[in-house]
Amino acid sequence: MSVASSSEARPQWVSNTPSSGGPLPGLSYGYPGKQAMPWRERIRNFTPAWFYVTMGLAITTLQFMVIPWHHELLVLKVIFLIFWLTTLLVIFAFLGLTIARYVMFPDLWQKVWDHPDEAMYFACLPMSLIPMQNGMSEGLDLWWGLGGHNSARFLWFIFGCWLATTLLGYTIAFVCFKKMITVHRHDMKTMTAAWLAPFGALIVDGSAGTLMTPLLAEHNPSIGMFAGLWATMTVSIGLSVSVLVMAILLQRMFVDGLPPAKHIWTSWSVLSVTTQAGFTILALGGAFNALLPVHYGTSKLLTHPAIGEIIYAIGITIGMVLWFVSIFAIIFAIRLLQFAVWTVSKQEGLIFGPNCWAWVFPFGVFAVHTYGNGLYFDSQFFRILGGILNIITILGSSVMIVLTVPQFFRGTMFTYSYVVDDEAMGIQYSHKQTDAARSIWAEEKGDMSLN
């Protein structure tokens, strides 16, 4: 029996909505649309998906560093610094709102983790932090020379932040993985690209260590080698699981068509995986070329004079292949978005929420990936294309900021919470462990009655 037709794989729910009342009038994802929420309700609806916004701001910050022309202009450095500091403040503000949500509504903590969709968005937090750390190592340290050019103390601090972020990413990924297996009920019709988030975050986590590896190697080659291997392991795990999930996503669309309008933005996650993996592997090749060969030990592989160049060539080749795959992914995402805007939105409504920022991060990474190709291939074509993509990312992000800020402070942009929406519609998801416990209890009760 196929997964799509299996009753065991489908999410089960029961409705608590009174039969006489029906859904609330004008209900849009759990709250009347275009109506300002009081702050208590805004906090209640402040989902992890809001970190899509900080992901977009963080990757936009890096665009000023990789503009291929007039790189040393003071105005670019100043704008980068303003964006970086602003994004840092927004991340702290969002963390405060997130903590307030679970302090004020403690029952939501378990409900969110047990929800098959909303739990995935916790991975947006480490994906917001990694570009900020790239900005610290490549921007504040090398570009601005904060604390001295390639300052050892500042670099160790960034290295510690990166290790902590990767551990956070691993924790979220493995908790989500466990929940998906033991708690969440799934159906091919309800599957979305949000499943990629926890594992795509591991790929993102690896990128910061990749860029720091050559800098760390100048101070301590052993620490540099550790950073390179840790980044390689993180990217390998994230990419392996993500490829498997993408295969399921394709099957879902082949069999059941496109996801609902509320989930259509997650289709950009495919681009995020392919281009982030491509750029990270591209940079890993350069990092290991700086580390290898080693001049100690008896390993014929690591001491071979050509080992660094071999890994360098392999990394560039894989990075280029994934850049080609990313072209398909970006066309795929744009076509799905076009369909959602012109077709699905007419039927279900396309509400502007934090999920609408989902395109900014992967598109910005694609711009950085293209810039990296220009560096490694010394290609004017990639430099020009990368510059164009940088500008598009900056302009697009600026438009999103203009649209988001007024609605955020008016309180009309918080109609996007899976758990709260389900409660408003009277939907309760059953879980694998709960159903298993009920089954065991029923069997034990039956045995007792027989005795």
How would you characterize this protein structure?
The structure is a single chain. The protein is an all-alpha fold and 451 residues long. The protein has one domain: Voltage-dependent anion channel (Glycosyltransferase, Alpha/alpha barrel). 68% of the residues lie in helices and 2% in strands. It contains 14 helices and four strands. It has helices at residues 39-44, 51-63, 74-104, 107-113, 124-143, 152-182, 197-219, 221-256, 269-291, 307-348, 360-377, 380-410, 418-424, 432-450; strands at residues 13-15, 27-28, 31-32, 427-429. Strands 1-4 form a two-stranded antiparallel sheet. The protein has a two-stranded antiparallel ribbon with strand order 2-3. Helix 5 (124-143) runs antiparallel to helix 6 (152-182), helix 7 runs antiparallel to helix 8 and helix 11 runs antiparallel to helix 12 (380-410). The longest helix is centred in the last third of the chain and has 42 residues, at 307-348. The radius of gyration is 23 Å and the shape is globular. The two termini are 37 Å apart. The relative contact order is 0.14. The model is unreliable at 1-33 (pLDDT under 50). Residues 1-20 are annotated as: Disordered. It comes from Sistotremastrum suecicum HHB10207 ss-3. It is found in: Cell membrane. One of its GO terms (molecular function) is sulfite transmembrane transporter activity. It is a multi-pass membrane protein.
